[in-house]
Amino acid sequence: MAGSPSSSSSLFVYPLFFRVKKLPDVIFLFSLVILIRGIFTTFTYLHDPLDIIPVHFPRPFGKLAFENDLFFSGHTPIPLVGFYVFRGERIRYLFLGLSVLMAATVLLMHQHYTIDVFAAYFIVYGIHRMDLWIKPWFDSLRARYFRG
């Protein structure tokens, strides 16, 4: 799973209502994390832990739950995106707290291996640094081709 509904929705609801100018940054970094996580899960195939607590969704949502998409955890980095995007604001610590809470929850529920969760923090930091490098180039392309 990519993240809890509460942490994912708060990541988009907060900038939508309070920091509209930050919404493109949230979407860009979120998309980059999802894209790179897809690459990681393709190349790092791990089986679910043996003592996993099974989660069953109602009928239409049952097909949305994937198996063996463990490395790196999708639960931990989603709120962590908010921590990196909202630099200089106090709300960022709420997102960091949500990320730690999600990490503790998936570890206690045995939904992920420990390395999946801890690696997510390091990988998302690298993605954030890559975002700082890519974003000015992307913004210059957007300004050049999409004037308006």
Keywords:
globular, 63% helix, mainly alpha, 148 residues, single chain
Protein architecture, described:
The protein is mainly α and 148 residues long. The chain has one domain. The chain is 63% helix and 0% strand.
Strand runs, count: 0
Contiguous uncertain segments of 5+ residues:
none
Which structural class should the secondary elements be placed in? mainly alpha
| Secondary structure: helix percent | 55-70%
Strand content: under 5%
Q: Could you say which overall geometry the principal axes of the C-alpha atoms support?
A: globular
Sheet with most strands: none
Topology order in helix (H) and strand (E) letters: HHHHH
Distance between the termini: 37 Å
How many structurally independent domains?
Answer: 1
